[in-house]
């Protein structure tokens, strides 16, 4: 199938499909006229990629995971490369969450302090 049909069948625009190919996530043969030709497995592969992207994984992470992916959702077979990549990504997410929580706590403290200072200043001039 050509890229336009793959786009229609998956709901993913052709620009994104070309990006997936450039990242090594999706493969296409080239017809004699130079057009991309995808086989039926490309539909499943694109759906797997979309699910993994929705999980917050990068295209680099997904490149490691796809060989271990089965089904549309996909179900991942616990091969060592996969587990190492997912643990690393989880660690990065935990670090981001920690930074966000520290920022939130600091911002809430500044708001509380500013509200208290504002009340005292208002009371002095009232």
Automatic annotation (TrEMBL):
Q: Which UniProt keywords apply?
A: DNA-binding
Residue span(s) of domain HTH merR-type: 1-68
Looking at the UniProt entry, the stretches that span the membrane are: none
Which InterPro entries does this one have?
Answer: DNA-bd_dom_put_sf, MerR-type_HTH_dom, MerR_fam
CDD domains on file: HTH_MerR-like_sg3 (cd01282)
Q: Which PROSITE patterns does the annotation name?
A: HTH_MERR_1, HTH_MERR_2
Q: Which GO terms describe its molecular function?
A: DNA binding; DNA-binding transcription factor activity
Q: Where is the signal peptide?
A: none
- Stated name of the protein: MerR family transcriptional regulator
Species for this entry: Amycolatopsis thailandensis
Upper taxonomic lineage: Bacteria, Bacillati, Actinomycetota, Actinomycetes, Pseudonocardiales
């Amino acid at each position: 199938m050509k890229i336009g049909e793959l786009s229609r069948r998956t709901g993913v625009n052709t620009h994104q499909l070309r990006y997936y190919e450039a990242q090594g996530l999706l493969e296409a043969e080239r017809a004699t006229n130079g057009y991309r030709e995808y086989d039926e497995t490309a539909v499943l592969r694109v759906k797997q990629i979309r699910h993994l992207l929705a999980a917050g994984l990068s295209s680099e992470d997904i490149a490691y995971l796809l060989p271990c992916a089965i089904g549309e959702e996909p179900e991942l077979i616990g091969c060592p490369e996969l587990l190492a990549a997912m643990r690393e990504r989880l660690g990065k997410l935990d670090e981001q969450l920690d930074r966000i929580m520290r920022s939130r706590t600091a911002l809430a403290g500044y708001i509380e302090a500013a509200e208290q200072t504002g009340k005292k200043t208002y009371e002095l001039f009232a």
